[in-house]
Write a structure and sequence with these properties.
Elements (H helix, E strand, L loop, with lengths): L2 H4 L6 H15 L9 H8 L10 H5 L12 H10 L2 E4 L2 E4 L1 E6 L2 E6 L13 H16 L6 E5 L5 H9 L4 E6 L2 H14 L4 E5 L10 E6 L22 H10 L3 E16 L2 E2 H10 L4 E9 L17 E11 L2
Parallel strand pairs: 5-6, 5-8, 6-7, 8-9
Antiparallel strand pairs: 1-2, 3-4, 9-10, 9-12, 11-12
Helix pairs in contact: 2-5, 2-8, 6-7, 9-10
């Protein structure tokens, strides 16, 4: 038996097929960088991109394909994993596969319209950079860590790879996300990354040396869980995570919160709302705007009519000893 399955006993037969598919793609040298939805749509709209021609088209660009495009072994694994959609003679994958930090990650196919879609995109790459920078600054040992709202699991898996002796929880309320996080953790060989169904920290005991989170931060008209952060401008969930996480940091513990904020008449609404919790004492923190202009298309919606822009930010908090 694959040793990764022994340490992930909750893998179903379909999960094991997905794990074997990931191994097969990695052996084939598969790599793909996921772009913004707008860029993805523009590239796929080109006439020559109507149908898939190779594995990157199938698993990266989410293009329709015929059976002769991919090896028979991969087609069998897709069926066993339950990710193959067959519509007459036209096929497509229910998932995409993206590269990050030398690993492959399964996540939802494009377009991500379903309420339980599992996000992965440019925000994920920025989140990963924030985690690497934050962990590089730490000198204390990491024994317990958690990725709140883990999605496909990249944050928790990065922490688990950095600190292989640590216990790293990956929590989410989305069953589809937890399934993919479980498979992605096994694919990465991070046996210390443990998926757990939980709403933020409710029902999760203990304190943590490292807490990371990349929550949804938009006001999404459709209320999709992977995009909708709640509140007038999408900051409510990020603030809930901040308020829940601060008391649960161990001495010298680190919180790395990657999120977005609406800028209204030059004011950063998330930063203003976060200041009271940060001012409570016992914490040192930095706040960086890592991209001044993300999801610009949202400015055309009624929800963001008053916004100048939406910025991606990283809040790094350290609890003093």
């Amino acid at each position: 038996m694959d040793p990764r399955i022994e340490v992930q006993p909750n893998l179903s037969d379909a999960d094991r097929a997905l794990l074997r598919l990931g191994d097969t793609l990695r052996t084939a040298g598969y790599e793909f960088t996921t772009v913004t939805p707008a860029t993805h749509a523009r590239v796929n709209a080109r006439e020559e991109n109507a149908r898939a021609k190779d594995l990157r088209d199938v698993f990266g660009w989410s293009r329709r394909f015929s059976e002769d495009v991919i090896p028979a072994e991969i087609l069998v694994l897709m069926r066993e994993a339950g990710i193959l959609v067959e519509e007459n003679a036209v096929l497509r994958s229910r998932v995409r596969v993206s590269s990050l930090a030398g690993e492959l990650f399964f996540h939802s196919a494009f377009p991500t319209k379903d309420a339980d879609a599992v996000f992965f995109g440019p925000d994920t790459y920025r989140f990963a950079r924030a985690i690497k920078a934050g962990l590089k600054e730490r000198t204390a040992a990491i024994r317990n860590a958690i990725d709140i709202g883990c999605g496909a699991g990249p944050g928790g898996i990065l922490v688990a790879k950095h600190a292989p002796e640590a216990r790293v929880l990956m929590t989410d309320i989305n069953a589809a996300a937890l399934r993919l996080a479980r498979v992605n953790a096994a694919l990465a060989g991070t046996t210390n990354a443990i998926p757990l169904r939980a709403d933020i920290l409710n029902g999760v005991d203990g304190t943590f040396d490292v807490i990371v989170s990349n929550p949804p931060y938009l006001n999404d008209a459709l209320g999709r869980a992977y995009r909708h952060g709640g509140g007038a401008f999408g900051a409510a969930l990020s603030l809930r995570i901040l308020e829940a996480a601060l008391p649960r940091l161990a001495p010298a513990g680190t919180l790395i919160l990657y999120t977005g904020t609406a800028i209204i008449a030059g004011r950063d609404l998330f930063r203003e709302a976060a200041l009271p919790a940060l001012a409570a004492g016992g914490f040192a923190w930095t706040y960086e705007e890592v991209d001044p202009d993300v999801f610009g298309e949202e400015l055309e919606t009624q929800a963001y009519r008053a916004a100048d822009r939406i910025a991606a930010v990283v809040l790094n908090v350290r609890k003093r000893n």
